[in-house]
Write a structure and sequence with these properties.
alpha/beta, TIM Barrel, two-stranded antiparallel ribbon, 10 helices, 13% strand
Length: 319
């Protein structure tokens, strides 16, 4: 799989990244550790060299699973983790990074990201200058190679950039969730900041496997996802039917088609989670699906049948 530069850093990432939120188990249902380990290993063997995790994914459990899965291949991989909104004071950032390093059994992180802006989820407001000071110190000490932010809007990315180099933004972004296109992506393109899209398959909706009447387990966070509710879900089903002929013409799945469209967008890479080895392998194959300009426009048009009806709430869950 061809790699791309992460922002202005010398780090090379794959356009498809392995997402490991599900490996943390918390907020997911039916997750098995050994299956997660096998899936992560399969992703790497299929050519995905970049793995995204976070301290809050199962309170470090996801990071530990990553280490178990591919720790022996560390020198070939790019590790990206995140510090949560409850740990944004200077000393907390340093401590959180050290915990992540221990969980991942490594002495450096390639990319360390602020997971949510200060004040999110009722956490204490911490000046971005203080948080960035800690991140710059970690970078200076060699504990991290690059700094990124997640769930930041354009104004927040601009502010963080005043205090240090930001090489990536990780927003929710998919064919069915495109709010970032009108906000931060133009700034990212102008400033060579890589976009690492999460929920790149709209949490599985773009795979086409969820049919009308599907009910999630109460502990599954997708039960609160607005895309799976009411008319949004109906419009998504209609759009998926229109996407099927394009996928068939490329001999690929709906999931692969949606990932291929996403990584063809300016400055954009796709984080794709996988519960099984087969899913991880399928995600990797999306990087070899080449869409024509006309097909990209048609897929764009189909996707807007869903996104044009969404409100302005930047969060896709009714938490």
């Amino acid at each position: 799989m061809k790699t791309r530069s992460l922002g202005t850093s010398d780090i090379q990432i794959t356009p498809i990244l392995m997402g490991t939120w599900q490996a943390g188990k918390r907020m997911w249902a039916g997750i098995d550790d050994q299956e997660s380990i096998t899936a992560i290993r399969a992703a790497v063997e299929a050519g995905i060299t970049t793995i995204d995790t976070a301290e809050v994914y199962g309170e470090g459990h996801s990071e530990q699973i990553v280490a178990q899965a591919v720790g022996d291949l560390r020198d070939r991989l790019v590790y990206a983790s995140k510090v949560f909104a409850s740990h944004l004071k200077y000393d907390q950032v340093i401590e959180a990074c050290d915990r992540s390093l221990k969980n991942l059994n490594t002495d450096y992180l390639d990319l360390y990201q602020i997971h949510w802006p200060s004040g999110s989820f009722g956490n204490e407001e911490v000046p971005i200058e203080e948080t960035m000071k800690a991140l710059n110190k970690l970078k200076q000490d060699g504990k991290i190679r690059a700094i990124g932010v997640s769930n930041f809007n354009r104004v927040q990315v601009e502010e963080a950039s005043e205090y240090g180099r930001i090489d990536s933004l990780q927003p929710p972004y998919s064919l069915f969730w495109r709010k970032i296109e009108q906000d931060a992506i133009p700034y990212c393109v102008e400033n060579n900041i890589s976009v690492l899209a999460y929920s790149s398959m709209a949490q599985g909706l773009l795979t086409g496997k969820f049919k009308p009447g599907h009910e999630f387990a109460k502990e599954d966070h997708r039960s609160a996802n607005v895309l799976f509710q009411g008319q949004n879900f109906e419009r998504a089903q209609n759009a998926l039917e229109q996407l099927k002929p394009i996928a068939k013409s490329h001999n690929c799945t709906l999931a692969q088609l949606s990932l291929a469209w996403l990584i063809a967008q300016p400055q954009t890479n796709a984080i794709a989670g996988a519960r099984t080895a087969a899913q991880a392998e399928d995600n990797a194959k999306a990087a070899s699906v080449n869409l024509s300009p006309g097909e990209l426009q048609e897929i764009d048009r189909i996707g807007r049948q869903v996104t044009d009806h969404l409100d302005d709430n930047p969060v896709m869950w009714n938490w």
